[in-house]
Amino acid sequence: MSLIGVEAVVRERLGMDPASLGLSALHQAVQVRMKARGAASQAEYAGLLALDPAEAGALGVELAVPESWFFRGGRQLFDRVAEFVAVRAAARPPGQGARVLSAPCSTGEEPYSVAIACHEGFVPPDAYSIDAVDVSARHLERAAAARYPNFSFRETGPDIRPANFRSVGEQWELLPHLRRQVRFRHANLTDPGFLGDEPQYDVIFCRNVFIYLTPEGRRKAMASLDRLLAPDGMLCLTPGEADRLPPGQFAASGDWGLYRRAAPAPAVAVTVSPPEFRAPRPRPEPVPRPPVAEPPAVVTGPVVTVQPKPASLEAARALADAGRLDDARLACERMLKDAPASAALHALLGTIELAQGRADAAAEAFRRALYLDPDCVEALEQMIVITDRKGNAAQAAALRRRLARLSREDAP
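Above: the chain sequence. Below: its structure as tokens.
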């Protein structure tokens, strides 16, 4: 039985693109939910999904990717955010501290990293607050428990555990004064009413999510982020997602993946003087012209319509963002004939192949990109996802170390 009906629900209600998660992810998630609901077949489960609004959310929980760790992206990013929070809080009256949002927050490592950075940066506890949101209630339960294995501390740098955690068996529990800074909520970023009861935030983390959304899901998510971000606030994305921001709407703020709204173009004052009065001129009599002979007909060959090629990588990416994946893939393949050594083109082709469910073809494209440019961030991030899904932990760890090294080298 085809999963087309289930895919449609996932796309329309959750804004998620099942193909971006890999060929087996949707099938595995459906199997888990079929067992939970006692459905004997995929067709029976599809009927349950269509009739029960809550079931779409439960399926989304199984599809969510809980890939996170403390200070993911580099310590410099979180220190920069802590500095920004301190400055914003200091400029406000008591009781009106800075506000931070982490969406999605997964199992809590990201918002807790902000709390640790603010604490170590001597930002008073009452000077800021952190809201953390995720579509998975199970992830939120783990986040609220604030207990983590050693693998959650794999970011390179000084060990943060002795000063901020206590050992509980084989896990580490975050200390209470840091846990109190974070409030967890269950919500879906692609819901048009997402956090509609909340005032704006000074900083919004929204990392590693756009790639899993449909074009319509990205549009809805971006509308929510635009509504919730303060006019002079900062938005944090991964390097591989920044080009999906609305053109001309945001500008980079440093090299940490932070973006602020671009300054609008200054208005140009135009003075319009009233028109000078002039008496109407008499109309000249029309002068007859001699007839002009028709030119001889020119016989040509058949008319050939040539489809213009996208002029750049950005044009091909725009096709992909618009959901025209076949056109985007063909555009990449045409451009690669002229520029076969372009790592960026191979990486974009891999992303498109992954979105269309061709994981093997995507992996091959990412491997070519990394052969041409070992520091291609987009290819590294996507290959980490692919190797994780295939259970190749050693290769995934090696790719993560390479990505972490790039973050350190790019830091000021």
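Residues 15 and 216 are 7 Å apart (CA to CA).
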